[in-house]
Amino acid sequence: MTGKVNLAGVAVVTGAGSGIGRSTALKLAGLGATVHVADISAEAAEAVAAQIGDRGRAHHIDVTDAAAVVALAERVFAEGRGVDVLHNNAGIGHAGPVEETPLEDWRRVVEINLMGVIHGVHAFVPRMLSQGRPSHIVNTASALGLMPGIDLAPYVTSKHAVVGLSESLHAELAGRGIGVTALCPGIISTAIVGESTMRGEIGASKQGTVDFYANHGTSPDVVADAVVTAIRKRRPIQPVPNSHVYPNWIAGRLSPRLGIVAARLAYRALRRQTAG
Fold it and tell me: What is the per-residue pLDDT across 37-83, written as a single tens digit (0 to 9) for each?
């Protein structure tokens, strides 16, 4: 199946109450889409849907609840217009030395960042395949889904998995009309760092990291523009911004050892900037 995805059709965005999800929801609404704004915060979802207006639909949902995601898909498809864009965006951050990271942290990161995406795929893909028209799925991964990171093992694990999942789905589904993109943002000015669990020394300087992201991070509106570009060009991987992602990504592709060195250097530079 070939053809362009209708960006003025119907979109579903999880984690749409703030940050990248909010910017993407508003961007798609600006292109004419009816947007289903899903978030674990009912208040945040309602606020974004209200900002969109008549074409905004608010949904209170926890993406770790598979049955709730299926129910969301049923509600959306019950309107009879299908889904043109699905953005599995809900996620959390995490940082800290692996020896100070309890299993509860690992499970929470994987349940939200990876299983949340899987639940979206499981609930929506069969329905999207039956539509008989082109559509697109964007899964929010991270620049750290393409490279190693220091004191970030659970987060990096989840985001590498999202990249692998997205590439495999694109290979499987693109010929059947569904493009799939792994969105790989770098340092973005959102609330995710402030809401992250941080342990060890990096946790002790959390406010410095929050301030660094707020002052030096790229606007989530730039990421929303990249989402639209990825859909239009059917890109399997969409880094954003390029300057944050490509140097270390390329280093790792040239040599795994070089990629690890680059990760260590990036970690030291960030710690110098954020240490109290």
Answer: 999 999 999 999 999 999 999 999 999 999 999 999 999 999 999 99
- Whether residue 5 lies inside any domain: the answer is no
276 pLDDT above the threshold of 70: no
Has residue 4 been placed in a domain? no
Which of 276, 187, 183 has the alpha carbon at shortest distance from 227?
A: 183
The backbone torsions φ and ψ at residue 7, rounded to the nearest 5 degrees and listed phi first, read -75, -10
| 41 in any annotated domain | yes
> Do 39 and 21 contact (CB within 8 A), yes or no?
yes
Do residues 139 and 124 make contact, with C-beta atoms less than 8 angstroms apart? no
Domain holding 98: CATH number? 3.40.50.720
* Residues classed as catalytic: 155
Task: Assess contact for 33 and 7: CB atoms under 8 A.
Answer: yes
Residue 223 structural domain: 10-274
Rounded mean pLDDT of 238-259? 94
- The number of domains in the chain is 1
